Amino acid sequence: MQIHHIAIICSNYEVSKKFYTEVLGLNIIREVYREERQSYKLDLAIGDHYVIELFSFPDPPKRSSRPESCGLRHLAFSVDNVEKKRKELIQKGLSCEEIRIDEFTDKKFFFTSDPDDLPLEFYEN
């Protein structure tokens, strides 16, 4: 079994589209507007294996992130160089936590958030 895709509902489609494509650098596979749902669906490529489906819906409820609540905790991206990725994201205007070391794997990682406060982790290969 493998992960097929990750679905994210955003509060502001244009802001989130810009974030995931221009800030994170994900590639657009396809973009459609579904009139019957008043919703955009944007399929984004992450490398060669996974897809994020970015959805917009009229007036979605706000996501509970902090304090942590049941459900999806965060989305983690694997990167070759955590320091480089953190510096790049800070230069693009994101607030990033300090780099930490995973106590079990000794790998470096840090967190930031998307425009709707979904925690995003960047974890070193």
From TrEMBL:
<dbReference type="InterPro" id="IPR004360">
    <property type="entry name" value="Glyas_Fos-R_dOase_dom"/>
</dbReference>
<dbReference type="Pfam" id="PF00903">
    <property type="entry name" value="Glyoxalase"/>
</dbReference>
<dbReference type="InterPro" id="IPR037478">
    <property type="entry name" value="YwkD-like_dom"/>
</dbReference>
<dbReference type="GO" id="GO:0046872">
    <property type="term" value="F:metal ion binding"/>
</dbReference>
<dbReference type="InterPro" id="IPR051332">
    <property type="entry name" value="Fosfomycin_Res_Enzymes"/>
</dbReference>
<dbReference type="InterPro" id="IPR029068">
    <property type="entry name" value="Glyas_Bleomycin-R_OHBP_Dase"/>
</dbReference>
<dbReference type="InterPro" id="IPR037523">
    <property type="entry name" value="VOC_core"/>
</dbReference>
<feature type="domain" description="VOC">
    <location>
        <begin position="2"/>
        <end position="125"/>
    </location>
</feature>
<keyword id="KW-0479">Metal-binding</keyword>
<protein>
    <submittedName>
        <fullName>Glyoxylase I family protein</fullName>
    </submittedName>
</protein>
